[in-house]
Amino acid sequence: MLLTVTDLTKTYPGPDGDITVLNGISMSMGAGETLALTGESGSGKSTLLHLVGGLDQPDGGTVEIDGTDIGGLDDAGRAAVRRDSVGVIFQQFNLIPSLTVASNIAFQARLAGREDRAWNDSLANRMGLTAQLTKYPEQLSGGQQQRVAIARTLAAKPKLVLADEPTGNLDEATADNVMSLMLELVAETNAALLMVTHSERLAARMGRRLHLRAGQVA
Amino acid sequence: MTRTGLLALLSHWRRNPMQLFTLIVGLSLATALWSGVQAVNAEARASYDAAAETLGEGQFAQITHPSGTIDQATYVALRRAGWQVSPVTEGRLDGIRLIGLDVLTAPGGLGPVDLSNGDLTVEVMLNGVLFATQDTLDRLPPVDVTTRAAPDVAPGVILTDVGTAQRLLGLDGQLSRLIVAPIQPVTQPPLADIAPDLTLRPPQAGSDVARLTDSFHLNLTAFGLLSFAVGIFIVQGAIGLAFEQRRPVIRTLRALGFPLRRLVALIAAELLVLSVIAGAIGVGLGYIVAAALLPDVAATLSGLYGASVSGTLQLRPEWWLSGLAIAVGGTGLAASASLWKLARMPLLASARPRAWAMQAGRGRIWQAVAAVALLALAGLLAWAADGLVAGFGMLAALLIGAALALPLILDRVLAFGASRARSVMAEWFWADTRQQLPGLSLALMALLLAMAANVGVSTMVSSFRLTFTGFLDQRLASEFYVYADDAEQAAALREYLAPRVDKILPIQSANQDIRDIPSEVFGPTPHATYRDNWLFLQSAPDAWPRIEAGEGTAINEQLARRADIAIGDTVTIGGTAFEVLGIYGDYGNPIGQALITEATFEALFPDITPLRFGVRMDPADVTPLSIALRDDFGLAEANMINQAGIKAFSLEVFDRTFTVTGALNVLTLAVAGFAILMSLLTLATMRLPQLAPVWAQGLTRARLGRVEILRAVLLALLTAALALPLGLALAWTLLAVVNVEAFGWRLPMFLFPWDYARLAVFAVLAAVLAALWPARKLARTRPADLLKVFSNER
Amino acid sequence: MNARLLAFLLLIPSLLSAQGFAGLGTATEDFATPQRPAIFDFPKDHGPHPDYRIEWWYLTANLQDADGTDYGLQWTLFRTALAPGQGDGWSSPQLWMGHAAVTTPDAHFVTERLSRGGIGQAGVTPDPFEAWIDDWQLAGPDFDTLTMTASGPDFAYDMALTAQGPLVFHGDDGYSVKSAEGQASYYYSQPFYDIEGTLALPTGDVAVTGQAWLDREWSSQPLSEDQTGWDWFSLSLGDGKLMGFRLRQTDGTHYTAATWITPEGQTTPYPDGAFQAEPLATTDVDGRDVPTRWQVRLPDRGVDVTVDAINPQAWMDTSVPYWEGPVTITGSHTGRGYLEMTGYD
User: Fold this and answer.
1) Which of B117, B538, C281, C285 has a CA between 20 and 30 Å from the CA of residue C330?
2) How many Cα atoms are found within 13 Å in the side-chain-facing hemisphere of C177?
3) Neighbours of B385 (CB within 10 A)
4) What class has domain C3-341?
């Protein structure tokens, strides 16, 4: 298995005591698999995604990526996981505003030390970003920015792509287009895709679906 | 409604006390810096004024007797002959200088003592009253005379009636000297007819205390000006940030129908209150700073110029008012731009502080145009300037122009760095630093000015020191100096000294107008002492041999500048024409000077007998010789000067000057450092969205923190690199333009690379210290806070 | 020297009383006060009376040069005591102030000297008579034969005086009452001096001759609290000389007194009201309105004259400022005289 989540729990401190966001979730994904993570607001989808991506630490349970329990890693170790094994795509795009589109695309791959310029070019080309490479993120439209974010993630050729409502800020047509590109490229690199989404329509395009309710798999 | 709006505005501070704190502290520090320097300045000036007024008899001619004592009967005889003179009896009372004057005849009355109260004046004349500063009075032994604090009397001096002084000093019927009133009756016999043994000394035009101390004053004023510039930038930064931070509140208030006009008025009123509070704190801090610095300043001045400055600080309205005015005025100046922007801001403009200032292209173009125009103006003034005002104008144009240019230059440098970056981290680092610039530029401008001020002032003070010690070497080249009271004693002295020393160098001078400029002519003996030590600013070839051969003269810079004399020109001395072969520096001397060789001098001025002698000898023998002169020969201690002693004292004085400038240096850097801290803290919250993606893609928070510090170091270093030439330009302006305009002589400029390196280290240190806290905060940001950036519910 | 300070310290009791100067007022009790009958002892009484607070030797002269141009001359030595008694050296309470002036029709030269008593810089000895401050001197073998010198930054004079008549005594044989409350001074004059000498003016030396009038007066508090100043006239009227003064009181009324002096030196004193002086015109002198043309009457002697200042700008810009200058007389009588006005500053 590429990803194995076992009995994962996470609580956050709230105004009226701790709130249990994840309450013993277990799941797994293999390479090349696509999985839609659905559920109500507050059901724990994003938290699960963050824990899997090494962005946050679980309170209980384990997250194994390629056989490594990332829950046991320190800050630097988790940073390495984010850099080397995982790619994250956010709803807000979260590009680095000070860098050009080209630099943004190459950023994570270069951080991970495996930049493939030809692959970058091809990604940019297929994303329709060739004309935008010297621009800065704020000069782009939302759809263009999200395509940059996807290209950035895939440029590093991660084994696991995590996407949190990647098309939530886009109109329907653009969203479909971006989604198709993403699925296509994920398939091409044999990466696994774990995507949080509200949209039934998008969830339907994924290989599997996992529905969360109150921090548990429903 | 106003109340509701005000509460909403103020709630921002309650929720963000740190921002309020930085605003108040920033304003306070700027005010403190300004008012501290002003306080030191005002105090020093007031002390001079007191000294000038108390000791200002220098502006009047004086009559003295070689013995130092004039019989009171002689005074009355002079008065009865039509001489309008006024008696002075002075002496030391337990080491404190006691000066007795006659209130009825003294041309300046009892100096600065206010005698408009008739009762008090009656008391002064009938029973005696001692006037001095409280400090001086505290040191006074018990006396049977009323004492009264008079703050404007020079420190260390007691003023009283001449009769009281005679009684306290046990000098009944004896006077020390007579002051000659500036206006005399038409019928007046010559002094020699009435009192042949008395000497009339003409007023010491221009050589009084105030003239000499003006140079130091100017330095302090320049520092005050610079600290003001630094302060204004900090205030501007603090206010600008306070506006940026509250844009969301302001937008919401307006969206809810709060009238714009009232909102602007509300914010203006709020800022007025804040600036008054901060100004008051700043004045208080400034007082502490000044009180801490003043003993050193006082020591410097009294050592340098013999002008005593009281070591205690008085709350002078001129400086605390100016401090408050700076705080309020600076705030007003800074806020007017922000209020203007607010008034024109579209209702639905982004509530989020602008992060990336690329769009501010038009503003940047204007800034560039202004910077270039100001720098060009400075260059033009340097080239064609005339007058003190132009000199200061040049300073202002240079400083503001450089400050405006700083962000643009840094932007270009960072862009260049980014283009040369190899690694992804480097590329991001350069680009991200560049993006930070707009938010940091005001703080960096403050740092630039602080550093430039430090470089400039250090260069100026150090140059002054080198020049002055060199000057002392030149003027006090002999190991030992002796003075004879009259020709007879001079002859005996020469005879006594001849077998005991290497060489006796007579020092003789005559007063002459050279090209209508009052000057003194010296006639030194041909000797290596002069050839080796007397350095020329400009000279003809073989200047010394030719002067010694009687072929020409050397003149001081003052004379050369005032009469527009160049090497090769001819001047007339004692009716004889001399070619000018050399021009030498003569620092602090208000009048002209010329040198001709001894033989020529004696031929031109046969009546002048030298009474002063420089003595070349083994320095180790100076002390035994002076003891022998005193005990054996009977020469008064006051007639001997040990050159080494003078030099050591002068150096000590300069070291105190350094303490003061050093302290001010550290202070300005600290304030600039605080400005950086403030900006970084404010930026920190805005920075999260920029940093979170980087973090998400695989950088640890600790590394991000380290990068932040690195960034501060880079910016500080770049700023320092730009501050160095600016500081040197500043020093050059002060030494070569302002000083020449103010005093008629140019201070040579020396460079002190180690000082500059140390300053750069200090600046970097200040920047690192400023970055440390925000970086640490960043390294400890909870992932949850970073994740909020990605949260979809934003 | 602080001019205001001296205004307090020196003379012109009108100022002292008008401003209720407590410092000296309280000390008055220690000073001697003039008593009736006035008994003089000459030459001793030509000298100073240190137990009285104020005293003066006050000489004015009407002079003419060879062309008939009018000149006025003043030589005054004031003595004021901070406390009674001569005292010694610098601690002597006696202060001296000298005023000298020369008035021409279009110029007025003034100078002032100040001195502490007790050190010999200023003083008066009665026999032989000498009054001096600095290089100024009024001296002679006796009071009838005097030489007089003074000098300033822009003028000087050197004069000789010879008395042509006796001393005259004002009021009740020299006891001169100055107010309804009875304030008084000892007051006598020598109005019969012939004077000649040289005025050294910026335009050159001028030889002059004329008549001089010397007033001697001492007191401790000659004016009452409510008197603000005085107008004093000394007029030579052909058939006699008239000394008259008018003390201005805060309620707008005046206290007057006068002495008629025959050419032989016989005197008739006139009580309050007999002598009348009314301003006819004022002149702006340095921003002050000063009466410079007067109607002066002494009906008992048929005197009804207009008195005109020869130079209306004869302001004494001294520590204690006042107006003092020569006048011409027209009307029932003609002649020359001197006018002094205080309390207009």
Assistant:
1) C285
2) 14
3) 19
4) mainly beta
Q: Which residues of A43-71 are buried (b: 16+ CB within 10 A; e: fewer)?
A: bbbbbbbbbbbbbbbbeebebbbeeeebb
C341 within 8 A of C322, measured Cβ to Cβ: yes
Rounded CA-CA distance B257/C215 in Å is 90
* Tokens read off for B683: 């930026």
Shortest CB distance from B115 goes to which of C2, C24, C156? C2
Cβ-contact B686, B248 below 8 angstroms: no
Residues of A with CB under 8 A from a CB of B: 12, 41, 46, 50, 53, 55-57, 75-76, 79-84, 88, 90-92, 94-99, 103, 106-108, 110-112, 136, 138, 152, 164-165, 168
End-to-end CA distance of chain B: 30
Q: Which two tokens stand for residue B592?
A: 């002209």
Nearest CA to B219 out of B735, B740, B753 is that of: B735
**Yes or no, beta carbons of B121 and C4 under 8 Å apart:** no
All domains in chain A, ordered by first residue = 3-217 (3.40.50.300)
What residue segments make up the domains of chain B, in order of their start? Answer: 1-55+232-353, 56-201, 357-474+646-654+666-794, 475-645
Tokens 């020196």 map to which residue? Answer: C10
Our CA-based measurement puts residue B127 at a distance from the nearest CA of chain C, in whole angstroms, of 7
Please classify residue B634 by burial: count the beta carbons closer than 10 Å to its beta carbon, then call 0-12 exposed, 13-18 middle and 19+ buried: exposed
C70 bridge partner residues: C64
Angstrom CA distances, B507 to B486, B530, C226, stand at: 14, 12, 70
Amino acid C13: pLDDT: 39
Tokens of C180: 């309804």
Cβ(C293)–Cβ(C306) below 8 Å:
yes
3-state helix, strand, coil in chain B (%, to 5): 65, 10, 25
- How many degrees, rounded to 5, is the angle at CA B616 between CA B613 and CA B619? 120
- Listed in sequence order, the DSSP H helices in chain A are 45-52, 75-84, 101-111, 117-126, 142-155, 172-189, 200-203
Question: Given this model, what pLDDT does residue C68 score?
Answer: 93
B20 contacts B241 by C-beta, under 8 angstroms: no
Map out the domains of chain C as residue ranges. 3-341
Q: Which stretches does DSSP call E strand in C15-144?
A: 54-65, 70-81, 94-104, 107-116, 122-125, 129-133, 136-142
Burial B404-433 (b: 16+ CB within 10 A, else e): bbbbbbbbebbeebbeebeebbebbbbbbb
Could you give the CA distance from residue B476 to residue C232 in angstroms, rounded to a whole number?
69
Taking CB atoms within 8 Å and a gap of at least 24, the contacts of B716-721 are B716/B447, B716/B676, B716/B763, B716/B764, B716/B766, B716/B767, B716/B768, B717/B760, B717/B764, B718/B410, B718/B413, B719/B406, B719/B410, B719/B444, B719/B447, B719/B448, B719/B451, B719/B763, B720/B451, B720/B759, B720/B760, B720/B763, B720/B764
Picking from B571, B554, B553, the residue whose alpha carbon sits closest to that of residue B563 is B571
Q: Could you report the average pLDDT of every consecutive run of 10 residues in chain B (794 residues)? A: 74 75 78 74 60 56 79 94 92 81 84 73 85 85 87 79 92 90 86 85 49 56 64 68 72 74 84 89 81 62 48 62 82 78 63 42 77 88 74 82 89 88 85 83 81 80 71 72 79 88 85 83 83 81 88 88 88 89 76 87 86 84 83 72 62 58 72 75 74 84 88 88 89 78 72 85 85 86 80 52
| Closest by Cβ to B186, choosing from C114, C119, C151 | C151
List C-alpha distances in Å: B778 to B444, B707, B772: 21, 11, 10
Rounded CA gap, B794 and A91, in Å? 11
Record the tokens describing residue B694, joined without a space.
């980087």
Please give the radius of gyration of chain B, using alpha carbons only, rounded to the nearest integer. 33
